[in-house]
Amino acid sequence: MILFRPATIVPERFRTPYRALRVLLFVSFLGAGILFAYDTLFPSQSFSFSFINPDTEKNTLTDPLAPDGTDSLRKGRIPAEETLRTSAGTVGSFSSAHVELVLRKDSGIPKDGDVRITLRKSYRSFFLPQGDPITVASKDRGVTVGGVPYLFSADTLQPFLSDRAALSHFPKEKLVTANKELFAMFPPKDTRIGFREGSLLSDTQGVYSIDGDGLAHPIGSTQIFESLGFHWNDVIPVNEEELGFQKRGKIMLFDAAQPDGTVFHDTVTGTYSVVRRGKRLPIGSREALDALLSVTTPIEASGNSLSVTATCTLKRDPFFSFQYPTYSCDVPLDALKTLPGGSFEVALQAKEELHAISLQTTFQTKPDRGNLGLFANQIRDRFSTAYGRKQ
Amino acid sequence: MKRNEHAVTATDKIVSETADTVSKRLHDRFGKICTTTPVAFALLIEASELSLFTFAVFLTIDAILPGIISSRLNLASLFAVILLLIAATVALGRHLGSVFPFTPDKKSPLTWIGISWLAFLLTLSTIRFPYWAIPIIIGSLFLAAHLFWKILFRKE
After folding, report:
1. Cβ(A166)–Cβ(A143) under 8 Å?
2. Which of A46, A257, A351, B125 has the greatest number of CB atoms lying within 10 Å of its CB?
3. What is the side-by-side strand order in the sheet with A200-202?
C-alpha cells in the first residue's frame, strides 16, 4: 500500500509535478465525497419534459395536459391563458423548487411576470377532476355455492378466480352461502372474475397494483409503494395462477397515479372519494362507503392540497438566453411542506401564446438545521426498521 | 508487541526495496522514452486504493443502514468502475514490468482488519434470517470463497 507513502517508482525529476497531481487526486476524492455527503443530507431532485421529444423515456415530468385532460400540449404549443399541467413524483421533503422554461425562437416572448407557475402537493390521483358523487351502493352480491365464490350481478352469476379474489370484492361475512338450485335459475358464466380494481397483490418477486383494466402493475420499490400512499396490510399474497390471470402492466414509479378503486380520505373535511375512470368520485352513500372500507384502507389526503398553492412568475434569465429564450423562477415550498403525498402538480399559465422547447423543475432542500434534523429522523427510522423488534 | 513491531519493520523494508527496484527499473527502461508513464502508474495505484477505500466505506454504511447509499448510487456500477481502474493499473504495471504479487501476510494488521470487516458485514447481513438458515448462509459463503480462492490462485 503506497497510499500514505509517496511512490518512489516516480523518477526524481518528476517528483514535484507528481506531488502536485497527487494533491489534486486527493482533493478530487475529498471534493466528490463532500458533494455526495451534501447531496445525501440535503437532496435535490430534478424533473424535465422535452416538448421536442415528448415520447422519450427521459422525460421525468408526466405528459403535460390541458385542463380538459387531453395531452394536446405535449408538442409545446401553449395557447394564451391556457393552463398546462404536469406532475413530478418526489420522495423527501423539499424547501424550494426552481422552474425553468426554454422557448423556441419563433415563440411569443413574454414579459417578466407574464408566465405564472403554480405548484400543488398531494397524491397524483387526488388532483383528478371531481366526478358525480356516488349516492347509491352497488347491488352486486357475493354468494358461495358448494364452496366456490360467485359474483351475482345484474341477474347473472360469474365465478371468482379464487377465494382471495372474492375477498378483494367482499368481506367474508358478506359472502352469502346458497345451494346449487341457484344454478338452475341463474346458470353461471364461464368467464372468471379476478381481483377488484385497486387491489394490491404480492408474490415472491414483488407487489402489484391492479388497475381499472385488470392490469397488474409492478410497484418499483418499497419506497415507491409507501410514497404512493398504499398500506402494507392491504397487500394480498397470491399464487402464480392468480397473478397470471391479470395481464402485466407498466412498472409504477414515484410519479404513478393511484389506480381506479383507490379510496381517499380527506382529513380536513372527513369525506371519502374513490378513483374511477379518470375522475375522483365523492362517496355520498354510507352503504357504498362501508362496502369499500371493508376491503381497502383509504389513503389519507388533505383537502387543503387542492387550494393551498405555491406560486412564482417566470423572469428572463439573460445568462442562459444566448441560444434560446430561457425563463426561470424559484418557488418557496414552505406552505406545502406539511401536506401529505409526494406528487407535485406544476401548472403553467401565460398571457400570450408560447412555443416551448422544454420545462424543467428542480426540487431543492435548504441546508439548515431543520432539514438536518429531518435527515437524522430518517436515519433513526431506518435504523429502527432494520434492527428494531419485528412487529 | 515486539513481534508486531518486527513484522511492521520487515514489511516496510520489503515495500521500500520493491519501490526502489521498480523505480530503478522504470527509470532505466522508460526514463528517456515515456517519462510520464510512471507518474500515471503511481497515480493510478493511488486512485485504485482510494476508490477501494471509498467503496468499503460506502458498503459498510449501506450494510448498517440499508438503502442509504444504494438508493442514490449504484454500488454495482461503482464496483465495475473500480475493477476497470484496477485492470488499467495492472495492465500499465505489466507494460512497465512492475508487478505487485498478491501474497497475503497473516501477521499484517491489514489482513486482520479485512477479516474483522468481513465478519462484521456477515453478522449484519444475517441479522433477520431464521437461526437455522444462518449456518447454511455462512457455510455456503465460505465454500464459494474457498472455490474462488482455488480458481484465482490455482492452489490445490
Report:
1. no
2. A257
3. A216-218, A207-210, A200-202, A235-237
Residue B4 has pLDDT above 50, yes or no: no
Query: What gap in Å lies between CA A187 and CA A17, rounded to an integer?
Result: 90
A31 to chain B, any CB pair closer than 8 A? The answer is no
A133-177 pLDDT tens trace:
999 988 899 999 988 999 998 888 999 999 999 999 999 988 998
CA closest to A37 among chain B residues: B69
Query: Across chain A, what does the average pLDDT equal?
Result: 90
Model confidence at B138: pLDDT above 70: yes
- Helix, strand, or coil here: A243? helix
Of B19, B26, B39, the CB nearest to A21: B39
Q: Considering only the beta carbons, identify the residue of A8, A22, A387 that sits closest to B23.
A: A8
- Please say if the pLDDT value at position B103 is more than 80: no
pTM score of the predicted model? 0.75
A29, exposed or middle or buried, with CB in 10 Å at 0-12, 13-18, 19+?
A: middle
Residue A303 reports pLDDT greater than 60: yes
Helices (H) and strands (E) in chain B, counts: 5, 0
Q: Which residues of B touch A90 (CB under 8 A)?
A: none
Question: What's the 3-state SS for B108-142?
Answer: CHHHHHHHHHHHHHHHHHCCCCCCCHHHHHHHHHH
Angle between helices B37-64 and A15-41 (to 10 degrees): 20
Q: Phi/psi of residue A275, each to 5°?
A: -85, 130
Task: Please tell me if residue B22 touches chain A, with a CB cutoff of 8 Å.
Answer: yes
